[in-house]
Design goal:
- The structure holds two protein chains of two kinds.
- By secondary structure, chain A is of the alpha+beta class.
- Chain A has three domains: 67 residues, no CATH class; 94 residues, no CATH class; 100 residues, Chitinase A, domain 3.
- Helix content of chain A is 58%, strand content 10%.
- Chain A is built from twelve helices and four strands, in the order ααααααβααβααββαα.
- The longest helix of chain A has 29 residues.
- The two termini of chain A are 62 Å apart.
- Chain B folds into two domains: 386 residues, no CATH class; 182 residues, no CATH class.
- Chain B is globular.
- In chain B, the strands form six sheets. Chain B has a 16-stranded mixed β-sheet that branches. A four-stranded antiparallel β-sheet of chain B has the order 18-17-20-23, with helices on one face. A two-stranded antiparallel ribbon of chain B has the order 1-2.
- Classes of the chains: A alpha+beta, B alpha+beta.
- The interface between A and B is large, with 36 and 40 residues.
Chain lengths: 291, 650
């Protein structure tokens, strides 16, 4: 196979390859010679980039070089795109996807909501913003270790005492010592649940307002409780929760806009997946299950 | 009346309006004259409000949180598969149910009150960029290699390579995003934005912060930095890194950067270190590893100025003390990590331990204070997670692991966590711990930060028990019988983190201690006080006292040891009962061995009854059998900040 080593053969093969390449480019490019315009703004941009790296502006000669390189880069860039060299490169593809996502993200977050929009959102998602039910209550604590088996009887005795005393009872003088407060003023239900346990909060939901009742169990032991006020969970006015509504609205808006943007782009295409099983899965996405 | 004269640090200047008792019996000298009973009666019209809490501006409940959480923005977290960013992390902390990186649904038993997302400042945003295939990063052979590894399913191996090359300083220069670059700035901006959005004064506090990960030679000198302020101030600077030339691995340079940042932006910052157990003798030095010289007054002043707290317990082991240092402490051998430094490139030697653990540091602090005039190791104690999953989830029955690859699965316990030729740390050794509890007046950045500065904090290994510690010279037994211990505590003494000076003749420090169990957790075994002191020769000592305990156990007359509380844990079913232990413990204790001329500190340690460890919950849920060396029970605990006694101040 000496022929493979002949310079002439090399020349012919290379020549044929170049001919084919030019042929491809020319077929796509049966067009007017395209313009490459290097604007003054671009020149300034090149100069600034240079200055940032070298900490000085470029000389006239260097600037010429920069422009020359830029033209070269532009030519290669356009021809590479025309040849589709970007298509099989995972890095470039993902980077471009990311860039477009950033753009749609930015567009979605620019808009400021109107009051009407916020109000509508608040109405539709009331449970997200509903203020907690609040309790005002006093309690007397009985420590299970101190009372042991007699705790039920002791609680009943104590209940009779505080009931008789009514509102004049000084809760700081009866029952056992307790590290948290004995009186709570307008505490949200979630905080009652955090401090005493869920069960206690549930019981408080159902107590009659304005009288001593018990025993009520908590994570600590047994309590006698007097709920003096209990507000219903309140539908908040927009002004009370404007910031959180705006935040949640913005979040939802962004997700929606991004999805709509993608769907609009997708609608420009007919998607064919050459695997019957996967094609079906694509057509009927398992909407919420995977999220 | 010395104790009352020097109330707690935050009340000292405001003593009149703040906590001066209406029923003051003895004349008390203040800056504006002597207040005696008559004057006080007149001033307060002799009648307290019906509500015992009205007009008393002190914290009535602790806020629970995490000062140390990583998200996908930390390069190692990202490498181990974390996909949750700061936004999701805050949503989870606030109690929302979310999907973890491993695809499992997860929710906290109850929301946290505050949190700081502290991603590593070195390589901030490295991972989101690498995953996105940023061409600038792929231009580096290392970057290209890791990118390819991750895309071919070898993410965990890539993670280890990344961490090792970072900690050994073998990362290509320029590969990590550094302050000043667009990538870095955008990651920092995202972090700030997430905190600003999640911050909800009164309900949930989201602090702005980061971790400075000084790790030269694999020796852990890590610290978290927390802002008191909002994003407007935090965004004026970019985090301090350890990579030269912009950063430094020397804490002295971090403190300088903090000082400069406060000066330049008007912000207020604090920092807290963690995992001295992985520093191989460098966390609490007497001789600085950077210079080989004894620490000086400048070091001591800066450390005590910037580091009011220490993270004493977390997933990578407990840092209170070590059995080698505290041979007489029966609870010292707890969730111990003492094989080597962070990357196990160097094994542990016993002489390193003294400079790694909180208790010995507090002791050496007393010694150094005598020598330098300033105590460099005067810190309060908190727990935190250091989880790298974006999930602050460290309850034993809800433990989501150290990294996303160790989120619940049948195999996770038996994976090696770190493995070198020298040693191996298994994943079952990771500890489901801990949280920070802060006695703040309200749930805001300012109030919680200020409480941290005055060290009115304690750490727990996961449960949310309520713990009080007050010190003074005048507490007596009947103060423990009051129904509102906090009132008498603040009135007659100083809270945890405070100071006592110059004992009056014939008096010893007295302490009002109290603890209340976690409302959904286990009962309490005992409340102990740990005392450390420096004697006349300058030698330091420690002793653990059982102060109050459940049931009618009697200490052994010969050894003084209290019998075990017992154990109700059913390991196969991962359950226990509260049939032993106490709901609430409260007592007054007086130091029986006090010498008024000797410096000392006292901190509280509250021990829970034994409960199932996370490994027991794993074994039950996944129906697996774990080897016998894997512990299946745990005695959870809380550590309070100390109260210090200093003679010769007036």
């Amino acid at each position: 196979m000496r022929i493979l080593r002949e310079p002439l053969a090399h020349f012919l093969v290379l020549g044929a390859a170049l001919f084919l390449l030019f042929g491809t480019i020319n077929r796509q490019g049966d067009r007017e010679p395209a313009n490459i315009v290097v604007s003054q703004a671009q020149i300034n941009h090149l100069a600034t980039g240079f200055a940032r790296t070298w900490r000085r502006p470029p000389t006239a000669e260097e600037l010429e070089g920069l422009v020359r390189d830029h033209i070269r880069e532009e030519v290669y860039y356009r021809e590479a795109i025309a040849l589709g060299l970007d298509r099989d490169d995972a890095v470039i593809r993902r980077r471009l996807q990311q860039k477009l996502e950033f753009v749609s993200d930015d567009v979605a977050s620019v808009a400021e909501p109107t009051d009407a929009e916020l109000r509508a959102y608040l109405l539709a998602h009331g449970n997200k913003f509903r203020s907690d039910r609040r309790f005002t209550f006093s309690h007397v604590y009985l420590d299970p270790q101190r009372h042991q088996a007699s705790i039920a009887r002791d609680a009943a005795d104590l209940l009779a005492t505080v009931k008789k005393a009514g509102t004049s009872v000084d809760v700081s003088t009866v029952g056992d010592s307790f590290l948290l407060a004995h009186h709570f003023e307008e505490v949200p239900r979630s905080e009652v649940a955090t401090l005493f346990g869920d069960k206690f909060a549930v019981t408080l939901d159902g107590l009659v307002v304005g009288e001593w009742q018990g025993p009520v169990e908590s994570g600590y032991g047994v309590h006698l409780v007097n709920v003096s006020a209990r507000t219903a969970p309140r539908e908040p006015a927009l002004d009370d929760v404007r910031d959180s509504v705006r935040r949640e609205w913005g979040n939802a808006q962004r997700q929606q806009a991004n999805e709509a943007f993608f769907q609009k782009l997708l609608s420009r295409y007919t998607v064919i997946v050459e695997s019957p099983k996967l094609a079906e899965a694509q057509a009927n996405p398992r909407a919420e299950a995977s999220r | 009346m010395f104790a009352r004269k020097r109330l707690s640090s935050f009340c000292a200047l405001l003593s009149l309006s703040c906590t001066m008792p209406v029923f003051a019996a003895d004349p008390t000298t203040t800056d504006i004259g002597t207040l005696d009973k008559d004057a006080a009666t007149k001033a307060f019209a002799g009648k307290r409000a019906y509500s015992p809490y009205a007009g008393r501006d002190f914290p009535t409940r602790p806020f629970f949180g995490d000062t140390h959480l990583h998200t996908s923005f930390s390069m190692d977290a990202g490498a181990f598969g974390a996909r949750l960013g700061p936004k999701e992390a805050y949503r989870f902390a606030k109690g929302e149910e979310i999907t973890a990186s491993s695809g499992q649904r997860v929710k906290l038993s109850r929301p946290l009150d505050f949190m700081v997302v502290t991603d590593h400042s070195d390589g901030f945003g490295f991972f989101p960029q690498l995953i996105a295939g940023d061409p600038k990063m792929l231009a580096y052979p290392q970057g290209r290699r890791w990118y390819d590894m991750i895309n071919s399913g070898q993410g965990a191996d890539a993670a280890i390579e990344i961490i090792v090359s970072f900690s050994q300083g073998k990362m290509a220069e320029g590969l990590l995003p550094v302050p000043g670059t667009a990538a870095y700035r955008s990651a920092w901006r995202e972090t700030i934005k997430a905190a600003e959005e999640a911050n909800d004064p009164g309900r949930f506090t989201a602090f702005i912060g980061f971790e400075w990960t000084s790790n030269t030679g694999g020796n852990n000198l890590h610290r978290n930095i927390i802002w008191r302020d909002n994003g407007a101030k935090a965004s004026l600077v970019e985090p301090f890194t350890t990579q030269k030339p912009l950063g430094s691995d020397n804490p002295r340079d971090l403190w300088k950067w903090m000082a400069a940042t406060e000066e330049k932006t008007g912000a207020e910052l604090l920092t807290l270190a963690h995992n001295g157990n992985l520093s191989n003798g460098r966390m609490f030095p007497i001789v600085e590893s950077f210079t080989g010289k004894r620490i000086d007054r400048t070091y001591a002043e800066a450390r005590t100025r910037w580091e009011p707290l220490y993270e004493v317990t977390q997933i990578k082991g407990d840092g209170e003390t070590h059995p080698f240092l505290s041979p007489n402490d029966e609870f010292a051998n707890f969730e111990r990590w003492d094989k080597g430094n962070l990357d196990l490139s160097e094994l542990k030697k016993p002489e390193m331990l003294e400079f790694e653990y909180a208790r010995s540091a507090l002791k050496n602090g007393l010694k150094l204070e005598k020598e330098l005039g300033v105590n460099p190791y005067k810190f309060g104690m908190v727990g935190s997670t250091d989880s790298h999953t974006g999930l602050s989830a460290v309850e034993e029955d809800n433990f989501f692991g150290k990294t996303s690859s160790s989120e619940p699965s049948a195999e996770r316990a038996m994976h090696p966590f770190v493995k070198t030729e020298k040693a191996v740390i298994m994943a079952w050794e990771t500890s489901a711990s801990g949280y920070a509890a802060v006695w703040a007046r309200e749930n805001t950045r300012e109030s919680i930060f200020d409480a941290m500065k005055r060290r009115e904090v304690y750490g727990t290994t996961g449960p949310r028990m309520i713990v009080r510690l007050f010190g003074g010279f005048d507490f007596d037994a009947k103060d423990a019988a009051t129904r509102s211990p906090a009132i008498v505590g603040y009135t007659k003494g100083v809270p945890m983190g405070g100071d006592l000076y110059d004992a009056p003749a014939g008096k010893a420090p007295t302490f009002l201690v109290a603890a209340l169990k976690d409302p959904i957790g286990a009962n309490l075994d005992r409340y102990q006080i740990v005392k450390g002191w420096a004697d006349a020769k300058g030698d330091v000592h420690e002793k653990v006292y059982d102060v109050v305990w459940s049931g009618d156990r009697k200490p052994d007359p010969r050894t003084g040891n209290l019998p075990d509380v017992g154990n109700t844990v059913d390991i196969p079913n991962a359950t226990w009962t509260n049939s032993i232990g106490a709901t609430e413990l409260i007592a007054v204790w007086k130091d029986p061995d006090f010498d008024r001329a000797q410096r000392a500190f006292y901190y509280g340690r509250v021990i829970e009854i034994p409960t199932p460890r996370w490994t027991a919950y794993d074994a039950k849920y996944f129906r697996i059998k774990l080897p016998s060396e894997v512990p299946m029970t745990i005695t959870e605990r809380a550590y309070t900040s100390p109260i210090w006694y200093t003679p010769g101040r007036s």
